[in-house]
Amino acid sequence: MKNISLNIPLSQPSNDSIQVLAPFDLTPVATVETANADMVEQALANAHTLYQDKQAWLPLYQRLSILEKTAELMSQQVDRLTFEAAQEGGKPYQDSHAEVLRAIDGVKVCIDTMRTEGGKVIPMGLNPASAGKMAFTQSEPIGVVVAVSAFNHPLNLIVHQVAPAIATGCPVIIKPARNTPLSCFNFVDILYQAGLPVEWCQALVIQDANLSTKLVADERVSFLSFIGSANVGWMLRSKLAPGARCALEHGGVAPVIVTEDANLADAAPKLAKGGFYHAGQVCVSVQRIYAHHSIAKDLANRLVAIAKTQVVGDPTLPETDIGPLITPKECKRVDDWVQEAIQQGAECLVGGNPISETCYPCTVLFNPSEASLVSQKEVFGPVICIYSYTDAEEAIQRANQLSVSFQAAIFSQDLNTCLNAYHQLNASAVMINDHTAFRVDWMPFAGLKTSGHGVGGIPYTIEEMQIQKMMVINPA
Fold first, then answer.
1. Is 117 known to be catalytic?
2. N or C: at which end does the chain have fewer Cβ atoms within 10 angstroms?
3. Residue 476 has pLDDT above 80, yes or no
């Protein structure tokens, strides 16, 4: 079992720790030191001192060299990073392997973005006051970044929050999810091995929620990157010091519309993947499918057939398709929501009963009540709901009825139908003939309404972690 101590320069050990449990069988896999108030203060002081001393900022060529070495070192440790991510987070080995490769590519996207991004020339000479002047902008780091991360992609989310900070030259304090801190510490250790001075990236596991809030709200923090629940995200935003910026990534209740002319043979496997992947613990997971009444039961039966083939179990085994939910509490919550939907009239076509304390089967519910929790809130479990509709405009209205707005999708072979859905659906992105969980790391990824604030995606995060500083030259 691993023992991890926090690496906060000039701080004393806290003499407190937590155990990290494998969600599949709840066996301990690591002990991690937790930060007390003195360590949080020291981390903030370290980061603030670095940012204030502009002469000591890491030059861009050095930051790029560190990131290049980081990608190289990660590539040499893919199997270890994969196993530990699968063990601590419960995402099956095959999917955790893809996450590690994606994280490596994310580091490379940071490098590519910084190589090609620059300032711009501001037009002058347009009026007598600006005649003879020249002006341009350059990018500078915004300041100290505090990143609060989630459990469901324990390595790739850390890369999305930390690597852009390193790329832009921002000192960063990262607080990983308590359930999955090991991948974070793995990445931070690799950054150190690649040559990053320790003070530039400090990782903290904090047990006390009030202390975590105090970290975020400190006046020395210039930017908050938050991935997690809406309640916590909006609360933290309200605590930010004046002038601090933020990006919040919350969840959605992703709607999909499937029309009568959709290719169900193509749609069903994609929808199953989008709904059952990582046991549904994805912020844009397929949850609500509005299917035309003429094909709704056919689509449901296809999803049932796929659900029955999924191997649920130990995420560290290569044959596992679906791993556990992150905690027993989450498994019970998902089951409570499913049972409520059944009691309110939903037809449970497959699944619907826990397999173990943390494993839940792929579940398909047909025509749940719109008042059920599975229809109103993000399930964050392997549950797909199918609702039949007769009128396309009615389906769009039902899809738009919630306060969340993230990614949505439509399956249809008619271009005009797809374009209409694109314009009418409340979403930051609409997938045409693909599931709602599609993402590549260089595209914008943004929750709207209660689903978030700001824009994710590595190039966009890099932009948000910088300021544009202008110089105006008036020739003597």
1. no
2. C
3. no
